[in-house]
Amino acid sequence: MKKKTLFGLIMIFILIGSLLPSVNVHADTTWNLVWSDEFNGSRINTSNWAFDTGTGSGGWGNNELEYYTNRPENARIENGNLLIEARKEAYGGMGYTSARMKTKELRQFTYGRIEARMKLPKGQGIWPAFWMLGSNIDQVGWPKCGELDIMENVNNGSNIYGTIHWDKSGHQYYTGQSNTIDVTQYHVYSVEWNASSIKWFVDGVKYWEANITINDTEEFHRPFFILLNLAVGGQWPGSPDGTTQFPAKMYVDYVRVYQQGGTTPSTQAATPTFNLASGTYDSVQNVSISTATPGATIRYTIDGSEPNENSAQYTTPINVTSTKTIKAKAFKAGLASSLTAVATYTIRSGGGIGNLPSTTWYLFNQKVAGVNTISENMQTGKSSVSGWQPIKAISATQNVWTTPVTNGTYRNGNWNFTLWTNNPGGTSNVKVDLLKVNADGSGGVLLGSKIINVSATGGGNHPTIYSYNLNSVSLNNQRLMVKVTKTSGADAVMCYNTNDFSTRLVTP
């Protein structure tokens, strides 16, 4: 990217030796993927990329005319591409803005096949680049750090330039150019870099090569980081003119780094993992999901359905406030989708977390399997039977009802019972016990108990309304249970779900 009037200097073939390009020599196919950014997320991955901002020193050493920003107006993810956009606008004392991104202090590489699939803008004064700098630049400066330009294009040109810069008693460089291509279409630009040479390719066809075993080129045997930028103006391309179209946009489909001896990439995306194991927790949890496949997109569901490429995309931790089953799957172009990862989280009640849904639970005459023969389940709707039926005789035998097995909190609220006697001349004393029990009915914990006098007030059937205020109750795969038993007097009758009788648990 650093140029000193590229064509104003004599290319130093004599320093390099006989290095004329070999036409139609294809890239080595033995490289193994070690890192990539596929730009499939919703935002730029800051674990891979940082931004250079401002105007640098002397227009980044090239008299460039743009102000580099980290704004989404200048760099963003769009339709699975990194988009770097140069704009004509007044900003920071300059007349143009753009973006310059780097993997410095995040990702660095010594040797390998480094490539990007890109679509470039054209126009007078436009200078897109995909390049590398030595990671020791802050210690030794440029050009002693070394520079490797994988792809540069200027103005309306139809050739790609590949260049190395280094120090040998001052700045030296060696450059070559590709055959003519349409740079406004996607092409793969790459280098193959080993201990002996650097080779440049467009779409897998080599067009240039440099020997890095001679002429004090030790810079190219140390770690380098990657840069992507779209410059405006500078001493190589010159300034934009009236024909230059803005905004100018550079699209990057992916950046990939391969090395020989690296791990062979799988044909299937790696199954996502959760930062939190399935289980029961006492408070709200934030669940993170990751995959070992670089550049893969994670899709997830929380409704029990199988994730697909149209499911919600994971970008930030999922806030789990109640019982949830999360299913996640990783997707990446060119790979089979991953296996489905599944995790179930139960949040115990307490601290206001995981309240039972606000509703009214009515008592139905329905047996509950696994509890006992006299238990009946409370449901959330009234019976369709009209009139005074169904009814339940309250005798000396225990009459038991339970809620469904529940995880959550029943907040302070009322149990309301409508009891009456059809013996106007007598009374019924009825005991009501409120308990928390295990799913199978065992392990009862008494929450409250009261004797109710169901008395007659006149002819016919006479109801007695009973309310019991229940404090907050935490349930962990447990049930709430009510036991109603006659203690003395005549049998009573409970009307438990018809008409407007209020034998019910109201969940606030």
TrEMBL record:
InterPro entries the record matches: Beta-glucanase-like (IPR000757), ConA-like_dom_sf (IPR013320), GH29D-like_dom (IPR059177), Glycosyl_Hydrlase_16 (IPR050546)
Domain GH16 span(s) in chain numbering: 27-263
Family matches, as Gene3D superfamilies: 2.60.120.200
Q: Which UniProt keywords apply?
A: Signal
Signal sequence range: 1-27
Protein family membership: Belongs to the glycosyl hydrolase 16 family.
**Full protein name:** Family 16 glycosylhydrolase
Species assigned in the record: Clostridium cibarium
* Species lineage: Bacteria, Bacillati, Bacillota, Clostridia, Eubacteriales
